[in-house]
Design a protein that fits this description.
about 75% helix, about 140 residues, 2 domains
Length: about 140
């Protein structure tokens, strides 16, 4: 990724977003997160950019940043099942299964045909149950 003298990547926000998606698709999550962070700084209200950034951060194991970004998406649009799913997954990876469960349940309820949503919810509920039984 070449940069100009200002430290910004070459191209415009649309280029950064598209390159970020390509990097995500190819598995280069850290580079995608870096590029998408520039795009978010330039277009902080773009849902598409923030969702892609949240995914990149999650895949880089930057779960707190991912959760924060997904949480902003949920606050803006409580009917966004994918944002609830992403927030729930990020919270579960942070070990906050109690906070993750309602978001995963919401995602599963909004999109009952999604096996990914249902599986994540089952895993979090099983973890919560096992912890409850251990006490």
């Amino acid at each position: 990724m070449s940069e100009d003298y200002t430290g910004r990547p070459a191209g415009d926000v649309y280029d950064w977003y598209n390159r970020g998606l390509e990097l995500l698709k190819s598995g280069n999550h850290a580079a995608a997160a870096q590029l998408l962070s520039h795009a978010r700084a330039a277009e902080p209200t773009s849902k598409s950019i923030r969702e892609a950034l949240a995914r990149a951060l999650f895949n880089c194991r930057q779960y707190a940043g991912s959760a924060e970004t997904f949480e902003g998406l949920v606050q803006e649009n409580p009917a966004d099942d994918y944002a609830h799913f992403g927030l729930g997954l990020a919270l579960s990876r942070l070990g906050d299964h109690g906070a993750a469960a309602p978001h995963l349940a919401m995602a599963a309820a909004m999109s009952p045909g999604s096996e990914h949503y249902a599986k994540a919810l089952r895993q979090v509920r099983a973890t919560l149950k096992a912890r409850e039984e251990a006490t």
